[in-house]
Amino acid sequence: QKEREGEQLQQQRSEAAKVRRAQQQCKARLIQERRVARAEARVAKAKEKANQAAKRAQKKRSQKAEKLLQSRIKLAKKDAKQGSKHPRKPIKKKKQVAEAVSSGEGSGAASPPPPIVLFLSGLAHITLPERTSLNASHDELGGADGLVLALDVAGTGHVTTYPSDEPTVSVQLPLAGSEGVPAHRVLGAGPCAGEGQVVGG
């Protein structure tokens, strides 16, 4: 009888130990799962915070770029009517076009063949030679003002040195039609003869 009671007691103790181990393992798993959940929540929060910061930075850059573009468009349209009377802020992206000829200096009839530059977008700053008191310059906005041609015509009326990277005449032909000669208006005919021929769109 005593032996059976001892065996039963030993079996009960063994089962109790198994239950305690199972409970401890379950508790450890719960603790680990909570730690993982907290870590994942921290990572998700950090990602969301980083995404919000990136969106704010992108929005700020977009607003700044839009503001700069609108200010340049407004300035170009104003200068096209009145002429530029104040210095420009530096533009980072520039492209200069120069026509090199055999003669070292050109004036009047010695002008080279007319180089032509076309652009449908962007901003062209047109400046006349500063050989006299006249300091006429203005902006033409490609695309918004139509098809813009910057060229130097042969003939009298202006003095400059060649080769040169300064465009001297700006002619604008607004596009209106696809057949034949499109509707247009001449803003300045002939060589550069004075301030009256520097006309904005």
Overview in brief:
With 201 residues, the protein is an alpha+beta fold.
Essential attributes:
201 residues, alpha+beta, three-stranded antiparallel sheet, two-stranded antiparallel ribbon, 1 helix, 40% helix, 15% strand, rod-shaped, disordered C terminus
3D structure, described in words:
- With 201 residues, the protein is of the alpha+beta class.
- The chain has two domains: 1-82; 106-197, no CATH class.
- It is 40% helix and 15% strand.
- It is built from one helix and seven strands.
- The chain has one helix spanning 2-82, and strands at 106-107, 116-119, 122-127, 137-142, 147-151, 159-160, 169-173.
- The strands form three sheets. A three-stranded antiparallel beta sheet has the order 2-5-7, with no helix packed on it. A two-stranded antiparallel sheet has the order 1-6. A two-stranded antiparallel sheet has the order 3-4.
- It is rod-shaped and about 120 Å long.
- It starts with a helix and ends in a 28-residue tail after the last strand.
- Mean pLDDT is 62; it is low at 83-115, 128-135, 142-148, 150-178 and 190-201.
- Residues 37-50 have a biased composition (Basic and acidic residues).
- Residues 98-110 have a biased composition (Low complexity).
- Residues 1-25, 37-113 are annotated as: Disordered.
- Residues 83-95 have a biased composition (Basic residues).
